[in-house]
């Protein structure tokens, strides 16, 4: 019982308790002491739950007292126990310190890679210019005069370098979207290729031109032009390897969220496992509904309630182990399984009834509030320009009329932790500014949206862990399974290769569709 008492927390959503907080606290303790409570018989270790900060929708005591008269008020004060993303333990502290050390290492690795790439890029662009300027500086008097063809090559080198600079900026100098655990193989190979290529050009230039002090200046300029042409071809190769190769779909991946089983399918090309993981995470934030752990507590509470009604007696004395008790409890729970489906059916039916009822109240309240907005807009048009209300003031004016219905609906659907009062006011002012309908305003709250729709501080996971039996730098193959883990759940990714499709052609003779209509010469009169 102490575990449930230590993990007691009240999910009050947007409003805070003033005069009734102590009373509710005592009632919560009494409820947990009861042997028939939903959460009072849990045997798991207790942790402290810190609910995410949320601003109150209704802050006055009168509305709180009035809300206390609701027949469904018991749902809004349910004590929730168990682990949470805000739980703190010794393991969490150790993991946080390890994450900090890993983040420092990732930052060093990222900046080291950027520094190497920047130095190599600077060397590439300065090399053709150095090839042209060094003979002019070292043995200018001995050089042959540069004719018209040689001067035209200067223009060619200048424009090719400009094109190469723009292409390099567009392809390589982009904001990184994530830190991957291993190096990008193709990019590393391209850097090595460019280094070897420039080094070989410098080696040939030093041996054949600098040592011998070649006087054919036009040949030296043509040598620099050939270097720029080769760099342009390497840039084309980089476009093919880094951008075009992955466009053709080759694999189909199935992504399953481990907690609720929600799944999506995506088509991917030739990618490494770590890059495929990045693509999966990018699509996860926009395609999957937001993860709501409150929806998973119902099944846990039902299981705890069934186990609370079981009593096990140790007739063999204290020397017997606890495994026999566990098997006895599991067997007794299996015998009670036949009656549990009725309870589940009625619980779901009652929950759907409450959701529909409060949804109808919310729709009516929002429609009345938007009707009031139209009246205010008609009145504002008759006032002076300096006396008109901005959308923020209009949202604050109509928000109290819908706040109670919205608060109850979000609590019933367990969405209150994702919507603060400030975010609702911002969305309401946005809808008023763009002259949106009540249905457009309610779309965010009636249906759970994708993860990107909500506040970044609440949904964004800063650390993902890639678990794979294969090397993360290896390419995707048929049957590979890898897992993306975060603090609260994991994404299981199963890779399947798109099958080879064989199409055959069947020729249909156009004459086969022709027919002859024969009419009888004699007709009935």
TrEMBL record:
Give me the stretches of Basic and acidic residues compositional bias: 36-45
Secretion signal, residue range per the UniProt entry = none
Q: Where is this region: Disordered?
A: 1-86
This protein's membrane topology, according to the annotation, is: Multi-pass membrane protein
Give the keywords, sorted: Cell membrane, Membrane, Transmembrane, Transmembrane helix
Q: Where in the cell is it found?
A: Cell membrane
Q: List, as start-end ranges, the regions of compositional bias called Basic residues.
A: 19-35
Q: Which domain of life is it from?
A: Eukaryota
Q: Where are the transmembrane segments?
A: 111-133, 153-172, 184-204, 224-244
Compositionally biased tracts (Polar residues): 74-86
Please tell me one Gene Ontology term that the record gives under cellular component.
Answer: plasma membrane
According to its UniProt record, what is one Pfam family this protein matches? Strabismus
Which InterPro entries does the entry link to? Answer: VANGL
Q: Which family does it belong to?
A: Belongs to the Vang family.
UniProt protein name:
Vang-like protein 1
Q: What is the lineage of its organism?
A: Eukaryota, Metazoa, Chordata, Craniata, Vertebrata
Q: Which gene encodes it?
A: VANGL1
């Amino acid at each position: 019982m102490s575990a449930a008492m230590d993990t007691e927390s009240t999910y009050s959503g947007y409003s805070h308790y003033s005069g009734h907080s102590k009373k509710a606290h005592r009632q919560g303790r009494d409820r947990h002491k009861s042997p028939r409570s939903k959460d009072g018989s849990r045997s798991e270790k207790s942790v402290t739950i810190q609910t995410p900060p949320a601003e109150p929708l209704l802050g006055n005591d009168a509305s709180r007292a009035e809300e206390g008269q609701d027949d469904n008020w018991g749902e809004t004060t349910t004590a929730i126990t168990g682990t949470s993303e805000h739980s703190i333990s010794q393991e969490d502290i150790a993991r946080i310190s390890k994450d900090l050390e890993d983040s420092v290492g990732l930052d060093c690795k990222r900046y080291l890679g950027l520094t190497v790439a920047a130095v190599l890029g600077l060397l590439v662009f300065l090399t053709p210019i150095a090839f042209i300027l060094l003979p002019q500086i070292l043995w200018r008097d001995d050089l042959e005069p540069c004719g018209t063809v040689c001067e035209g090559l200067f223009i060619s080198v200048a424009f090719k370098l400009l094109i190469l600079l723009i292409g390099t900026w567009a392809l390589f100098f982009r904001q990184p979207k994530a830190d991957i655990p291993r190096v990008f193989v193709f990019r590393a190979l391209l850097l090595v290729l460019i280094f070897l290529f420039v080094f070989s050009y410098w080696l040939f230039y030093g041996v054949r031109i600098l040592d011998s002090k070649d006087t054919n200046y036009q040949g030296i300029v043509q040598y620099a032009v050939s270097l720029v042409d080769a760099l342009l071809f390497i840039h084309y190769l980089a476009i093919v390897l880094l951008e075009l190769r992955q466009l053709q779909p080759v694999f189909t991946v199935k992504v399953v969220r481990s907690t609720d089983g929600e799944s999506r399918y995506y088509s991917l090309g030739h990618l490494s496992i770590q890059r495929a993981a990045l693509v999966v995470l990018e699509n996860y934030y926009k395609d999957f509904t937001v993860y709501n752990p409150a929806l998973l507590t119902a099944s846990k509470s039902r299981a705890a309630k069934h186990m609370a009604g079981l009593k096990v007696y140790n007739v063999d004395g204290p020397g017997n182990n606890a495994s026999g008790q566990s098997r006895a409890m599991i067997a007794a729970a299996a015998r009670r399984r036949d009656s549990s489906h009725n309870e589940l059916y009625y619980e779901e039916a009652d929950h759907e009834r409450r959701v529909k009822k409060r949804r109808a109240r919310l729709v009516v309240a929002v429609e009345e509030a938007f009707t009031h907005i139209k009246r205010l807009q008609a009145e504002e048009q008759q006032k002076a320009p300096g006396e008109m209300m901005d959308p923020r003031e209009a949202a604050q004016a109509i928000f109290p009329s819908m706040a109670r219905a919205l608060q109850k609906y979000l609590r019933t659907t367990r969405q209150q932790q994702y919507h603060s009062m400030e975010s609702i006011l911002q969305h309401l002012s946005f809808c008023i500014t763009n002259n949106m309908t009540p249905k457009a305003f309610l779309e965010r709250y009636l249906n759970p949206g994708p993860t990107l729709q909500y506040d970044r501080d609440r949904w964004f996971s800063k650390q993902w862990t890639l678990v794979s039996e294969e090397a993360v730098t290896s390419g995707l193959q048929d049957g590979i399974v890898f897992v993306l883990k975060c603090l609260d759940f994991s994404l299981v990714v199963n890779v399947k290769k798109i099958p080879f499709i064989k199409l055959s052609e069947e020729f249909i003779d156009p004459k086969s569709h022709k027919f002859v209509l024969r009419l009888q010469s004699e007709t009935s009169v």
